[in-house]
Design a protein that fits this description.
heterodimer; A: mainly beta; four-stranded antiparallel beta sheet; 11 strands; 0% helix; globular; B: mainly beta; five-stranded mixed beta sheet; 9 strands; 44% strand
Chain lengths: 113, 113
């Protein structure tokens, strides 16, 4: 019963380093999402992929890139990490029907020093 | 998306029903009501959603008023593990980029022994 799996769960980076956050879902969902959540705040959408082969920007895309590797996997890359990107990152997926709910992973806690 | 209003916090005794209200007086005809919860440091967990009929699943019941301007999430027998922040979200299909979810302040439910 895996659902949405994110790796790693925790990571500490130095400013300027690069890293890729991995997300995989086993529910055969069409759409996938990357959000970030800062302390005491709601989730903000970084990028999403409505279907395999497509990606689009969300609210806060600057400093990030994404790849929809296949239907199961959607990765988020930080090319040159900055302290402002310290956050908890959540991946979510949703079936094709637009009213169906999103299902979330347990998050990656990222600290950038 | 319609704006939602929830009380910032509520207490409930363990074993009793927890009734969490949500006001969404500007909801439009094709917008669904979704409930999620977030237990500290975990990813948001989908609970239930509905359009106009009452819904029930293994986790909770959702009661939507006939005019659809408000709803109540019912956890029939609250346990300590139900302590979390509960979010009521209203949105329609294709309302914004990628159908992203907007989490407001939510209700912090504290289940007490």
């Amino acid at each position: 019963n895996a659902g949405v799996t994110q790796t790693p769960k925790f990571q500490v980076l130095k400013t300027g380093q690069s890293m890729t956050l991995q997300c995989a879902q086993d529910m055969n969902h069409n759409s996938m999402y990357w959000y970030r959540q800062d302390p005491g705040m709601g989730l903000r959408l970084i990028y999403y992929s409505a279907s395999e082969g497509t990606t689009d920007k969300g609210e806060v895309p600057n400093g990030y890139n994404v790849s929809r590797l296949n239907k199961r996997e959607f990765s988020l890359r930080l090319e040159s990490a900055a302290p402002s990107q310290t956050s908890v990152y959540f991946c979510a997926s949703r079936p094709g029907q637009v009213h169906q709910p999103q299902h979330f992973g347990d998050g990656t806690r990222l600290s950038i020093l | 998306d319609a704006k939602t209003t929830q009380p910032p916090s509520m207490d409930c005794a363990e074993g009793r029903a927890a009734n969490l209200p949500c006001n969404h007086s500007t909801i439009s005809g094709n917008e669904y009501v979704y409930w999620y919860r977030q237990i500290h440091s975990q990813g948001p967990q989908y609970i239930i959603h509905g359009l106009k009929n009452n819904e029930t699943n293994e986790m909770a019941s959702l009661i939507i008023t006939e005019d659809r301007k408000s709803s109540t999430l019912i956890l029939p027998h609250a346990t300590l593990r139900d302590t979390a922040v509960y979010y009521c979200i209203v949105r329609g299909p294709g309302a914004n980029a990628g159908n992203m979810l907007t989490f407001g302040g939510g209700t912090r439910l504290m289940v007490k022994p």
